[in-house]
Amino acid sequence: MRFARTPKDDPEINLIPMIDVLLVIIIFLMLTTTYARVAELKVNLPKADAEKKLERANEITVVVGAGGQYLVQSKPVQFRDAKELAESLRRAAAGMKEAVVVINAEDNATHQSVVRVMDAARQAGIGQVVFSVEQTTK
Asked: Which of these, 9, 38, 61, 108, could form a disulfide with 66 (CB 3.0-4.6 Å)?
């Protein structure tokens, strides 16, 4: 008996459908990716949409002016370092349970002025510090 042998074809991998799928994925990624330029990022602070202000009896308000003026509970405070400011915060927090420092900083106040108040609050043993912002009108 003679069996006829048929020549076998070499297996082929068809690359064209795979290339089509990859091109569709690349086009999708190019269309959905956003390219942000950090150098062009503009930040306008401090304004926010906020609900009604919470009324707390244990608030210590600290106003930081653009020229470096500080008001603690609406009284001007003169100090040379953060320890003296911490002492005035301690006096303002006397008798309050879990006092909260509310920092009202002007737009042009330096970051150092705000950080100085935060450091003084830490030295005074006040753990909660919040920032007040101006409400935007709709």
From this structure: 108
Please give the domain boundaries of the chain with CATH numbers for all domains.
47-133 (3.30.420.270)
Nearest to 117 by CA among 77, 95, 133: 77
| Those residues with Cβ within 8 angstroms of residue 127's Cβ, 6 or more apart along the chain or in another chain | 98
3-state secondary structure of 71: strand
- Using DSSP's 3-state secondary structure scheme, residue 106 falls into coil
Residues of the chain with pLDDT under 70: 1, 35-56, 134-138
Alpha carbon of residue 107 to chain centroid = 17
